[in-house]
Amino acid sequence: MRFTTLNEWLAWLEQLHPTEIELGLERIAEVAARMELLKPARRVVSVAGTNGKGSTVAALESVFVAAKISVGSYTSPHLLDYNERIKINGVPVGDDIICQAFARIDQARGEISLSYFEFGTLAALAVFADSSLELALLEVGLGGRLDAVNIIDADIAVITRIDIDHVDWLGSDRETIAVEKGGIMRPAIPVVCADSEPPASLLAMARQLGCLWYQYGVDYSLEDTPSSSLSRAWRWCSEGESQSIEGFNNRSLPQPSLAAAIQVVSLLDCPVSADQLRQGINHAALAGRLQKFMVDEQEVLLDVAHNSAAAHYLADYLQAHAVEGNTVAVFAAMADKDIAGITAEIKTQIDHWSLASLDVSRAAKASELGNLLQQQGITAITMSDSVEEAYLQAKSLCNKRGRILVFGSFYTVSEVLQQLNPQ
Predict the structure, then answer these.
(1) Integer Cα distance of 178 and 171 in angstroms
(2) Is the pLDDT of residue 412 over 60?
């Protein structure tokens, strides 16, 4: 084995490949074939989209854990530990297991160069294949068509909300981006679309492939029940007849993602009872997505929203769940994101901005963020050299029964989460 610790492996992987991102399937597909990893579980669900992928995977995972059906999940990026990316039955796998997978990949690849993400994807597939799983849940990292995950033929494809993000790689409009996301579809398989208004290009691809199409708001939905706004009912149409299951009350994950997860469960025809379905959906949670802590009579809300669509959803949540005190935002973001679009969506819900610089080469400086906010007429701004300083500044600015909102990137949330939960 080249290395004995996970940190050593990860440090090596970060400098192994000449570029951080290299879209294309030839190299990773060759290594996967050598390792016989192209069928990592009895059934596979792949999830692509701009927003809501992680929530969909988390909801599905929670349901199958509740039903005691063996399930593996592969997601990215992680917040605190790399192990979060690869889970068996909802539990991150240990360092030793990942190291052993990395060693096998290193041996099998020969002279083939693999990126950090490609190595991680193969490691997840190897762990899943060794575990004899009923189901593997694969979250697409970037795009779909040329993403490493797409070497696997999914039994069901999920396409979540499609919006503008990663324009340098995927295109600058929804129609173009949808073609990349739709690359995970295969001929005649079910496709669960969690976008209520999918781009025409995605619909055309599904028709051309002869996919069985299920669209949120048309073929299935998750709606408040007439008797109580605290409970929701999943509704779907089967053979011309409308049916429903009530009792869903999860308010922390996006409604379309939860509905899509339930739709996938119904299509997989697994032995999941209505009670297990409710239990799984109602207990589903995802670190860094509307994750709430109470600290010194202040609410600390963490959310990894890093594009305008996610910021819009977050703004709606803040408006619907107002606090007695003020709201102070701890904000830091990557320079290649639509920062102006993000802040424009949420600025009416923020009383003061505590801006930070991240120790990441792609990140915008706090001064750059401040200039963009000032151009939007925002003047209640303080700036810090680090997220830690910005968070401490926010605590001093936030009054009792107020809210500190931490958002803008996975890096931003991760740094505050480590302070709140150092273990």
Answers:
(1) 9
(2) yes
